Amino acid sequence: MPAHRQDLLSWLSIAWPRSDVGSVTRLTGWPRWRVEAEVQDLTQLGLVAEGPDGLLSPLVPAAGLWSAERRQDAHRAAAALMAPGEPGRMQHLAAAHDLEAMVSESLQIAERLWALGALGRARAALTEGLAAARALDDAIPATLLARLARVALAENTVLALETTVYEFGRQRTGPEQRDTL
């Protein structure tokens, strides 16, 4: 298979499940007509399926076509095209191993879910942010802990409250950070 088709399959797998001609055009930087023609060829070869909604699904694994570093860069590019807090962006940041961005993204997602009343999902997003901050080996941002406490108090379940108390206990804080909480 020619390299440009391998690239397109890889971009489709990065963008999936939100891959359509428009998103793949933005990711590849190719002209739209080229993406449409290549997608048509890949569809005829049985390597891509196009749904009635225009979404494209690669039908063959593309993970081995690019190096891990190139896939991380592609996920970073996909995340950059999405608005903060947009569904799916956190997965791209995680695949790109962009831990700092994951911390800030978790706050964006939690805020959106808080507004919707989806407290358990907001707490899960904040927990992802905590894990990313710990992987950075940084102190947990006070904002993250404060939002976790706010969500847990609103959720008012034993699990949410115990988890939050546990997270506060794990945190190494100095007097200046405790004052911000």
How many helices? The count is 10
Low-confidence stretches: none
Structural class: mainly alpha
Q: How much β-strand is present in the residues?
A: under 5%
Arrangement of strands in the largest sheet: 1-2
End-to-end separation in angstroms reads 57 Å
Helix content: 55-70%
**Element pattern in H and E:** HHHEEHHHHHHH
Mean pLDDT: 88
Radius of gyration, in angstroms, nearest whole number: 20 Å
What form results from the Cα inertia axes?
elongated
What does this structure look like?
- The chain has 181 residues and is mainly alpha-helical.
- It has ten helices and two strands, in the order H-H-H-E-E-H-H-H-H-H-H-H.
- Strands 1-2 form a two-stranded antiparallel sheet.
- Helix 1 packs across helix 4 and helix 6 packs parallel to helix 8.
- The protein is elongated, with a radius of gyration of 20 Å.
- The protein starts with a helix and ends with a helix.
